[in-house]
Design goal:
The chain is mainly beta and 719 residues long. Helix content is 4%, strand content 55%. The protein is globular. The two termini are 41 Å apart.
Length: 719
């Protein structure tokens, strides 16, 4: 919730039968079956040899199976097959992507390789930086790409886990698609995707995406709505010149979901808590509202056969109304880390109206092929300018009364906006150089270098506590890859990432307002295999991220100093296997992670694992295309997450949990015209009760339950 973000300035069986019945009805009505339809499945597409590498890494259209980094791409079909309509649901697909305070009704928060991503710096849209402190719609996205690992290869400042990139749908040809969907217990969605070629010779194109959604999840008191309208156009000015433009407006209004917590320091059994209860259920509760307008323009010029120049610009304007009846701590027991032993808690009225965030970016890249010293070179030189401004007003964060975890108590509102917020301005200029050198036909050297100049200013909305910092740093990256056979490739890579911070401008700090740069570093070894039937990968990674700590009594002016203090050290192993044979399709992915604090001046911290980071994760799906019923495929899937720590001292852990799902997809074609796709599925088939995640923020424990059994069904018509 935004309360956590801003508080830094404050002390059945029936659904499955229905699904199969509907599929059977559709099969009876079919005219022409689609015989060679791929089965419905969770697709780990990043390993396919035939699929181009995602552009998020900046090395062009290198096949993913030939790239010396881990990248995954989830296209719109894969998302539809999995029933994913919101970004925070993406964790159901990728084992390296974790929940990091993922609340219904709020913006998505992820971790990669155990590091929480920064919503201000770890997200891209067609390669340009955006602010993800909003509800990002997926309806006009062709693909969601993930780059795992130290992100200095692509981003000037960012958390080291990886980067998320959204690829916008562009005109591709004459086609139309219409979608209707239902999700238990009452969410309804309608969407249209219209792609039209224009001009006498097809030199232009226009693509329109529109969607409207009634949000009524199984979580109580969380009804809302969501809309999107987006347009993308292309114009082939000449054989060598392409102009592309797109604009998107999205709106979401929905009450958010506060987390549960410990009860007096004791972990409540997940089975004793109804996962449908929303503690944000006061009579005065208002929805969180996200309005997002984004537009971009891209010009691509082919200079000659080997060289291309591309310039793109983007502006993003976000307006948020952030509100919640927010439970926090237990003043009656002098415990602000959890709720009270008897299930009560202090309830606060939080409101931050008319938050404005504006991001602007312009990037120019020159890409080409050349020969130097007798070696083939694939060069990319780029320049990126980025500007972010966050403007806020006063906010309310007032004690309103005492609530209960069963949601039965109503308290009066306390809406007075008596607290300041923080306005921020951030500007950066980055230049980058990437080169792929073919040393010999099976051996390649990959080089990357990024230099960033960063200026940051912040000031409270009442004009107090200003800070200003200017920093410059360089982040290198290099890799060596070897193609052992046409199907098997190995690689080793090393790189750096950077994060920038400023010590709070408070009287207690002796170094208040001081800016610093923290460089993370990653080493990665990997094997990738891909042929026409199977794709597999095995990757080991080792990441060191600098940590900070306050030293001193911190109880008076100049009594506290923020210092660098050791590292957060994450070592892990990622594995994936996907293949198809005789109507069967298998997709699996897993990650094993050892995350520890090391090198701290406080010996009691060394060896501790971070909170809310599972020790292992697994995503697997097995699908079967029925040979006697062309067009029909059935799928079983499993999600598993291992034990994770709840408290920083590792004295309490969440147990591991496993959830199963079933899905079916049927495709048929009406004559030579409309092609229909009927999808149905049940997530958390056995209605497992478990704590899904346990984010620890601002010295407080939050607990989020696994969603209950959920049925979904949709129908898509493609013309």
């Amino acid at each position: 919730m935004a309360v956590c973000r801003t508080r830094s300035s404050f002390p059945s069986r029936t659904p499955l039968c229905l699904a199969l019945g509907l599929i059977g009805t559709a099969a009876t009505a079919q005219t022409v079956a689609v015989a060679d339809t791929a089965p419905s499945r969770i697709t780990i597409t990043g390993q396919k040899a035939t699929q181009p590498s995602t552009g998020v890494a900046g090395f062009g259209d290198v096949p993913a199976a030939r790239a010396p980094f881990q990248t995954q791409g989830y296209d719109s079909t894969t998302l539809s097959d999995a029933g994913i309509t919101a970004l925070n649901e993406l964790t159901r697909l990728d084992p390296g992507l974790g929940d990091a305070y993922n609340a219904t009704g709020y913006w998505a928060s992820f971790s990669m390789r155990g590091y929480a991503l920064d919503n201000r710096f770890n997200y891209r849209r067609d390669g340009l930086p955006i602010n993800a402190e909003t509800a990002i719609s997926l309806d006009n996205k062709e693909r969601v790409d993930l780059l795992r690992g130290t992100s200095g290869i692509q981003a000037g400042t960012s958390a080291p886990g990886g980067v998320v990139d959204f690829v916008v749908k562009r005109p591709r040809g004459d086609q139309k698609s219409f979608f209707l969907g239902y999700t238990q217990s009452g969410s309804l969605k309608a969407a249209a995707d219209i792609d039209q070629t224009l001009g006498s010779e097809g030199q232009a194109g226009l693509r329109i995406n529109a969607s409207v959604e009634k949000l009524d999840p199984q979580l109580r008191d969380a009804q809302g709505h969501r809309q999107l309208l987006a347009a993308a156009g292309t114009l082939r000015v000449s054989p060598d010149t392409l102009l592309e433009a797109e604009v998107e407006y999205s709106h979401q209004s929905q009450p958010s979901q506060p987390g549960f917590s410990l009860l007096g320091g004791t972990l409540p059994k997940a089975g004793s808590i109804n996962p449908r209860i929303n503690l944000n259920n006061q009579s005065w509760t208002q929805p969180v509202v996200f309005d997002d307008t984004t537009a971009s323009l891209r010009w691509t010029q082919q200079l000659d056969r080997d060289w291309r120049l591309q310039t793109q610009a983007m502006v993003q304007r976000l307006t948020n109304n952030d509100r919640a009846a927010f439970p926090l701590g237990c003043s009656s027991e002098d415990n602000y880390q959890s709720y009270c032993s008897n299930g009560s808690f202090d309830l606060y009225d939080y409101r931050s109206e008319h938050e404005h965030r504006t991001s602007r970016a312009v990037q120019t890249e020159l890409q080409g092929h050349t020969q130097w010293l007798g070696l083939a070179q694939e060069l990319t030189a780029g320049l990126l300018w980025d500007d972010y401004r966050g403007r806020f007003g006063p906010q309310a964060y007032n004690w309103a009364g005492v609530g209960q975890i069963d949601g039965s108590v109503q308290v009066p509102a306390a809406p007075e906006a008596g607290y300041t917020n923080t306005n921020r301005t951030e500007r950066s200029l980055e230049w980058s150089l990437r080169d792929v050198v073919t040393l010999a036909e099976p051996t390649r050297l990959w080089l990357g270098l990024r230099h960033t100049t960063l200026h940051r200013d912040s000031v409270n909305t009442d004009g107090t506590e200003p800070t200003r910092s200017a920093q410059a740093f360089t982040t290198p990256w290099l890799a060596l890859s070897q193609q052992f056979t046409p199907a098997l490739m190995g690689y080793a890579s090393w790189g750096q990432g950077a994060e920038s911070s400023v010590v709070p401008n408070l009287p207690i700090y002796s170094n208040a307002g001081q800016g610093s740069t923290h460089k993370s570093r990653q080493t990665e070894l990997g094997l990738k295999y891909a042929d026409d039937t199977w794709a597999a990968s095995l990757t080991g990674f080792d990441i060191h991220r600098p940590a900070t700590r306050d030293i001193g009594s911190c109880d008076g002016d100049d009594s506290c100093t923020e210092v660098s203090d050791g590292n957060d050290h994450h070592r892990g192993l990622e594995a994936s296997l996907s293949g198809h044979w005789a109507g069967w399709t298998l997709d699996t992915g897993a990650m094993w992670l050892r995350a520890r604090r090391e090198g701290s001046g406080d010996a009691s911290l060394n060896g501790l694992a971070p909170t809310n980071v599972p020790r292992q994760t697994l995503r697997a799906a097995l699908a079967y295309a029925l040979p006697d019923w062309p067009g029909l495929s059935l799928q079983a899937s499993v999600l598993h997450e291992g034990q994770r720590e709840v408290l920083p001292d590792n004295s309490l852990s969440l147990p591991a949990w496993t959830s199963w799902g079933l899905a079916a997809r049927y495709q048929w074609q009406q004559g030579t015209g409309t092609r229909y796709t009927l999808r149905a599925g049940v997530d958390n088939l056995f209605d497992v009760r478990a704590w899904k995640e346990s984010p620890y923020q601002y010295d407080h424990v939050y607990l989020y339950p696994l969603d209950p059994r959920t049925f979904r069904i949709s129908l898509q018509a493609s013309l």
